[in-house]
Design brief:
Elements (H helix, E strand, L loop, with lengths): L7 H4 L2 H9 L11 H17 L6 E4 L6 H12 L3 E5 L6 H9 L6 E5 L6 H13 L1 E6 L6 E6 L4 E6 L7 H4 L5 E4 L5 H14 L3 E2 L1 H9 L5 H19 L3 E2 L1 H10 L9 H13 L7 H8 L3 H14 L3 E4 L2 E4 L1 H6 L13
Parallel strand pairs: 1-6, 1-7, 2-3, 3-6, 8-9
Antiparallel strand pairs: 4-5, 10-11
Helix pairs in contact: 2-10, 5-6, 8-9, 8-10, 9-11, 10-11, 13-14
The structure holds adenine (ADE).
Length: about 350
Amino acid sequence: MADQTPTHSKQYPEDRSLDTTLRPQKWDDYIGQETIKRNLSILIRAAEARKEPIEHLLFYGPAGLGKTTLAYLIAKELGAQIKSTSGPALERVGDIASVLTNLSSGDILFIDEAHRLNKLIEEVLYPAMENRSLDIVIGKGPSARIIQLELQPFTLIAATTRIALLSSPLRSRFSGGIFRLEFYTQPEVERILQRSASLLRVTLEAQAAAEIAKRSRFTPRIANRLLKRCRDYAQVHTRSPVITQEIADKTLELLQIDRQGLEQQDRALLDIIIKKFSGGPVGLQTIAAATSEDESTVEEVHEPYLIRLGFLERTPRGRCATARAYEHLGLQKPGQSPLLS
Ligand code: ADE
């Protein structure tokens, strides 16, 4: 099955390796998501005291907010081994059976893009999560038999950008908790950028950090990517490892990222809804076709931030551009007096 990950890492292939270079290596280096971290700390400490693996966890939220990073940090805190796979990588029952039987006691199994797990794999996971039992059906019809294998105690940590697509039986088995990662605050992104700048051995002036943070969609993965582009710009134009506000502005302008953090594709999406479909409502399929994007990319990459900015609304009849979107693009909403906008 082809991997159709509609994340920014698909569009910017260097993001994944960047993630690992700049990824926090210690619990205390992880900035933000404070409530989640407090809850997880308790889970970790309690499980350690009982000498048991922590219960299964589910992280969800938009791409790039640090779901994978959290899973790796939990493993590090516990001194546990982490084995990583993803929904689309697990095609057949044999794939998940092999992953599960290769787990040692206390291991963490991380499954990214859990919403892309197929039904057969989910069904193997239910008993595995609930009572560490691997139930495999051999054969078909009246001669079919179930073989049961006992698995080592393990913790499943799953991550998804689309919690609504997870079946409710699967969701209900995350007994350790289901945690929603939030967009970061401006000061948190600035701190993340300063930490990354020191790892990359560049000086990031405070105003430059503020500017990059403002246009980062409050997403560390995007902030770090923009920081690297600013570093490149400084290197080429000033031969110096100092990122000033002027360098940040010029880099972001060159990347066509506007003051609200919208990229060319985001503006094109709003522009099409407004100009071709009179502001909406218009269906997801139609938007995807008109913008030449995957439906899932529109839904998982572009829409969450446009909705957060109040530029787009999802209604039962389709997507609508808001008055703010018209204003941002310098367009006038029909029926609205220019004096009011
Ligand atoms: N890099 C990416 N996400 C981060 C986070 N939450 N804290 C620190 N550095 C990060």
